[in-house]
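Input record (one chain):
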Amino acid sequence: MPLQNRVTPFGEIVAIEQRGLFMGNRGIIHDPATRTLLARRWTNKAWIICVCEFRNVRREVMSRRSWTELFFYDEATALAAGHRPCYYCRRSAATAFAQAWAGARGKARASATDIDAVLHAERLRGTGKKLHALRVAPASLPDGAAVAASGEAYVMASGRAFMWTTEGYQSPRNLKDAEGLLTPPSTVAALRAGYRCVLHPTLLALLEGDDRQQHSSRGRRPRSPTAK
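The corresponding structure, as predicted from the sequence alone:
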């Protein structure tokens, strides 16, 4: 049975078989004796996104009194849950994120502490996920932003919505509206300012296939009703 350490775009930590591209943490939130989660879902404001392999370090997941290993399907999932890139194992990504995040707020720079403080206020409502008002059409959101619609999470890319499921992304669809924004607003602003988050290869493949299909459809000329 899988451990309860996969994170959804809603920020929930669940036990599913899904294999992800990234790891991360929110501090120590598990019992190493039973390898199960404690009641709390975070112990510090630094919710980070890490690579799964770094300097050949090997860890037995949730086996010691250290930070709890969490896993994300892709970076868009992690950003939606309220995490940000780690400065230790993803320094270039963390620096790019901080620059875009600060620039979007009209600042020259922003420290990790500054970012964490704002994200912490944006990601939580009580002990649950905060859903933010969506004041634009979902299609106008930057690639990697996530919204909630009919109780499901959708990641936006090239104006199209990809529903996140425990089995992966579904084929793209046009989403006219949504109940709200899952990705914290300051992170959405960073994405709009130029930070490029890592989308899962399956989403990119679905997007490429949809682009080909649309291109093919536009290339077909309607046949004249008088043509013989």
